[in-house]
Amino acid sequence: MTGLPTYEDVLEAARQIKGEAVRTPLLENDVLNAQLGGRVLIKPECLQRTGSFKFRGAYNRLSRLNEAERAKGVVAFSSGNHAQGVALAARLLGIPATIVMPSDAPAIKAEGVKRFGGTIVPYDRETESREEISARLVEEQGATLVPSYDDIYIMAGQGTVGLEVAEDLTARGLNPDQFVCCTGGGGLIGGSGLAIRQHFPRCELWAAEPEGFDDHKRSLEAGDWVANARKSGSIQDAIITPEPGRLTFQLNRKQLTGAVTASDDDTLRAIAFQWKQLKLVAEPGGSTAFASLFNGQIDTKDKTTVVVVTGGNVDPAIFRQALEFV
Amino acid sequence: MTGLPTYEDVLEAARQIKGEAVRTPLLENDVLNAQLGGRVLIKPECLQRTGSFKFRGAYNRLSRLNEAERAKGVVAFSSGNHAQGVALAARLLGIPATIVMPSDAPAIKAEGVKRFGGTIVPYDRETESREEISARLVEEQGATLVPSYDDIYIMAGQGTVGLEVAEDLTARGLNPDQFVCCTGGGGLIGGSGLAIRQHFPRCELWAAEPEGFDDHKRSLEAGDWVANARKSGSIQDAIITPEPGRLTFQLNRKQLTGAVTASDDDTLRAIAFQWKQLKLVAEPGGSTAFASLFNGQIDTKDKTTVVVVTGGNVDPAIFRQALEFV
User: Fold this and answer.
1) Which of A244, A271, B140, B237 is 20 to 30 A removed from A193 (C-alpha atoms)?
2) Domain boundary among A149, A183, A212
3) 3-class state of residue B1 by DSSP
4) Residue A220 and residue A218: Cα distance in Å, rounded?
């Protein structure tokens, strides 16, 4: 199904994933608030099943397939978090899953896919096209491709993050000034933005990207799709995408306030802070937004800021590096 | 106020701390369930304010003090988690707090107390009595002593952990077979046990203690208070107490099913698992119950088990050790 999702699609996705996805809490931390001089609400999607928000969209998408489609299986390409989300959703629904995954993906992510019964087809990020490999698999197997962001059900499913945030803020009588979210293809901030803007029309929406991979920032400035110069070379692997999604950016170009960036070291510092104060395990590409609250890109002073920690699938070696910043 | 708390006191405590304490979620993990062959529900109190459940009881207790009592301040003795809970509750309520803390307490805990404005008085675990030091401070300052477990409001406040678990289980239509909880003085399992048994009369209640500090286990067997031989020497510092509490054990001797133990290495392995699969940062003494699901002491096969992860205030050096087990 093509087309852009609406707020109604997000509500429908919430009903579809209820009881399957974890309703993650909205956390607040005294030390964080004091240090940033404002109120910060954290949505820890690292606590989601498979360790990232990706399960939401995957389950919403896969649960709409009919019997014939389910029997032929699904194919997805992903650096690892979408891969794990699809693998688990597929297992729960009894669907065979093949995942096209970069050979430099963190071991913890490949392991997760295998654990949930997915079959991995590795590729080289610099020399091979994951789109072509996936298309061939789809043709050979008659399988359904599950895009990681350019799909109405995927976007709506990820949007349940924003919906839960909006509901929890409302229950606490809070009116957010800004919503900051790690952004790769743009599905999460796109879907979530629908829900946030529905409830809080004046809330700013900020995409957070890795330094050197700021395709949303440059695309928003250009008013058109602008690709990144490089395709790899950051520990923020979860949100390295060639350019903004075809569908997602049609939504995001209208609703985003702008984009900010964080360096790899900024994200290691953010991981250390989350380890120490929030007791959360976050991955680099899940901490980009959090890092942007500390590196001067997002002004939190006297504001109410929502930040999404999108995932926690990090290899031990990277985590040890982050602990050096404690 | 002396006497033992009832279920009504736990309900009252829940009303008192509402909006102040975090309502932590009840998590479930696919990998954990598969590995243990049953359903395990995790109550992550490491996500509580100050990084442990202790804030609940502290806030419940301190918020009952009258104006005159508040002006004279509070005194608490603690290895660090109760200390931080009291320090933050005191700051929120505008009460001066003095904390008597062992000199070998983890640096992260002492730092937390100072950050929340508490004054630390250090003592030597082996040669000095924290009770005597605290009593002297109470006499000199006219301050109120805030016990870490032997107090009806403290027990009732910690019991809100069990109450939230019971509510969330009921909402999901689950009937737990067993509730396993890290146990030092016995306030948390005592208060929580009231709520769990009220909702699920047949649910077993298991105290989890550090190997070599199994005072509850031996006291339950003896039917009387039995002290530990040692007072220190475990990384599970959060739950090292001389013997079961005077008040708490009056409740726990009636309601506990029994006690289990975990070694320091068992808790390091549990920390590693939680890091990898749950994306939670737990401390050794907050992982004792979790560890008992893996070391053969608690049988989880085909059962529904609730486990409380009581805290996450761990020093980086210990955490690095745990990561070796990933």
Assistant:
1) A271
2) A149
3) coil
4) 5
pTM equals 0.96
Amino acid code (one letter) for A89: A
A258 DSSP β-pair partners: A206
Domain count of the fold of chain A = 2
Are B82 and B28 in the same domain? no
Q: State the residue for tokens 């107090």.
A: B151
User: Least CB-CB distance to A22: which of B27, B49, B108?
Assistant: B27
Q: Would the CB atoms of A323 and B319 count as touching at under 8 Å?
A: yes
A172: chain B residues, CB-CB within 8 Å: 19
- Of all residues in chain A, the one with the smallest CA distance to B277 is A51
Q: How far is CA A33 from CA A17, A294, B26, B53, in A?
A: 32, 12, 25, 20
Nearest to B280 among A49, A116, A281 (CB): A281
State pLDDT tens for residues A237-287.
Answer: 999 999 999 999 999 999 999 999 999 999 999 999 999 999 999 999 999
Using the beta-carbon criterion (under 8 Å), do B281 and A282 form an inter-chain contact?
Answer: no
B61 Cβ contact list (under 8 Å, min separation 6): B89, B146, B151, B153, B154, B157
Q: Which two tokens stand for residue B220?
A: 């339950």
Beta strands B39-44 and B204-210 are: unpaired
The answer, yes or no, to whether residue B119 has pLDDT greater than 80, is: yes
Average pLDDT, chain B: 96
Torsion-angle region of residue A279: left (phi > 0), alpha (psi -120 to 50) or beta?
Answer: left
Residues B104 and B45 in one domain: no
**B131: containing domain:** 55-149
Please classify residue B94 by burial: count the beta carbons closer than 10 Å to its beta carbon, then call 0-12 exposed, 13-18 middle and 19+ buried: exposed
ipTM above 0.90, yes or no: yes
Please report where in the chains the tokens 């980086």 appear, as a residue: B316
Task: Give domain status of residue A319, yes or no.
Answer: yes
B22/A contact by beta carbon, under 8 A:
yes
Residues B202 and B141 in one domain: no
Residue B1 in domain? no
Residue B42 lies in a domain: yes
Which alpha helices (H) appear in B94-214, and where do they start and end? Answer: 107-115, 130-141, 152-171, 187-199
Q: How confident is the model at residue B79 (pLDDT cuts 50, 70, 90)?
A: confident
pLDDT (average), residues B115-129: 91
- Token look-up 């210990």 returns B318
Determine what percent of chain A falls in helix, strand and coil, rounding each to the nearest 5: 50, 15, 35
Question: Is residue B220 left, alpha or beta, with left meaning phi > 0 and alpha meaning psi from -120 to 50?
Answer: alpha
Shared domain for A131 and A265, answered yes or no, is no
Can you tell me the distance from the alpha carbon of A279 to that of A273, in angstroms, rounded to the nearest whole number? 9
